[in-house]
Amino acid sequence: MQNVLQYQGRYFVCGSGRQTLLKDKTANDNYYLLTMAAIAKELSVRKAPKKCSVILAAGLPLGSFGREKKSFREYLFRKEQPLRFKYENESYEVRIQDVRLFPQGYSALALQPEWINSEPSILLVDIGGWTVDLMRLDNAVPNAATCRSLEMGVIRCIDEIMEQVRRSTGLSVTEIQVERVLNGSACSMGEEVRELIQRYGRIYTERILSAIAESGFDLKAVPAIVMGGGAAILKRHVRTQDGLCRQIYLTDIHANASGYERIVGQMSATR
């Protein structure tokens, strides 16, 4: 029953593969089911009661936050209360008390306000699985007019590298192998393949830097905070000769979630 969710008489295995790209996460129940599994895992880690009330804190991309906020909140905050399900054969009864939504990327900075308070202007670069989200902050205030979302996420990079390895060597490497090599971790494969993966990691980095410049941001003049799943790749493949201004790499993949939790905690404390 490991990673198995039981809900309304059906069984779902969580974490067995990558979710297909959806422009609208409310198009099916996949993210709702994954939210149940996430709640169960959080309650288990915190040794909290399995019958309880929770506030869900979640995020949406910068560029689509205003447009999608209402429908995504309704998607997570359904009339079915309390929510009854089993995860890994443990029964849960959870009442969702409220759903709070925040912009991805910017919320993570709640953990490190000194990074933005010390700079007049700073660029936030959130490299996710499918998109690279950009936003400039002036005097620590988000400039909504500068929001951009580029479809150049890490998944596209890894897929392209896997195809290039097949063409060049005939080998079918896995996503996890590619990711480990890009991040500089140990992986048992030939030196030729590792060099090929690292070369395309640099090419991916050059593409992102070029796309950011084409979007109207000058990384040689404005410091940047780079976060998300692709932050470690960029950190490893950016070179001195790129001549970039100050770069801060936030490589903790849980930074957004931690930011949402901290903000909700602050909101609750002020009431």
Please, could you describe this protein's structure?
Residues 17-106 form the Actin-like protein N-terminal domain. InterPro entries: ALP_N, ATPase_NBD, MreB-like_C. This is Plasmid segregation actin-type ATPase ParM. Residues 124-239 form the Actin homologue MreB-like C-terminal domain. It comes from Hespellia stercorisuis DSM 15480. The chain has 271 residues and is an alpha/beta fold. It folds into 2 domains: 4-103, no CATH class; 108-253, ATPase, nucleotide binding domain (Nucleotidyltransferase, domain 5). 38% of the residues lie in helices and 24% in strands. It contains 8 helices and 11 strands. It has helices at 30-45, 65-76, 114-117, 154-169, 175-182, 191-214, 231-237, 255-269; strands at 4-7, 10-13, 51-60, 83-87, 90-103, 121-127, 132-138, 141-142, 148-150, 224-227, 247-250. Strands 6, 7, 8, 9, 10 and 11 form a 6-stranded mixed beta sheet that branches. A 5-stranded mixed beta sheet has the order 2-1-4-5-3. Helix 4 packs antiparallel against helix 6. It is globular. The relative contact order is 0.12. The model has no long low-confidence stretch (mean pLDDT 90).
